[in-house]
Structure to design on (158 residues):
């Protein structure tokens, strides 16, 4: 069964993945609207693609709620995970997830301290919520599949 999604592009992306495995032609979009079709796999489930860093970023956007702009996202990740994050990697992940339809961005108010430029805020879309729920469910399923004997062994030597 094929499903089609109509996408509107505001910027020039080289390749679009909407977070689903789809069958059809890969498109190289420019400004405008395109239709992408994909097929549900035999299980009837839609499979979402969310890498480890993308999962961390989208969860952090959820934590920050209405205050999720790039510097705040970076600071939150670094404080919670004691992990350094480069702005380049963060902007790449945010753009990639926006391209997949997991996040959407909007411009905030422009301020004098930013030379009149508005902050770009991010929020999770309905598709993004499904993707993080799928990631959570998949991880929970894998954790439950580990035999209890693994956890009963002595881990004191680590």
């Amino acid at each position: 069964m094929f499903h089609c999604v109509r996408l509107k592009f505001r910027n020039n992306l080289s390749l679009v993945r909407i977070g689903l495995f789809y069958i059809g032609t890969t498109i190289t979009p420019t400004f405008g609207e395109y239709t992408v079709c994909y097929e549900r796999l035999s299980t009837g489930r839609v499979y979402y693609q969310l890498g480890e860093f993308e999962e961390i970023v989208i969860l952090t956007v959820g934590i920050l709620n209405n205050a999720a702009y790039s510097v705040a996202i970076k600071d939150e990740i670094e404080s919670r995970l004691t992990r350094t994050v480069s702005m380049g990697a963060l902007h790449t992940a945010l753009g990639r997830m926006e391209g997949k339809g997991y996040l959407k961005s909007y411009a905030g108010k422009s301020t004098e301290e930013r030379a009149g430029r508005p902050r770009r805020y991010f929020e999770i879309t309905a598709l993004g919520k499904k993707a993080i729920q799928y990631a959570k469910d998949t991880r929970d399923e894998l954790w439950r599949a580990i035999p209890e004997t693994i956890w009963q062994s002595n881990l004191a030597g680590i």
User: Anything to note?
Assistant: Residues 126-145 form the longest helix (20 residues).
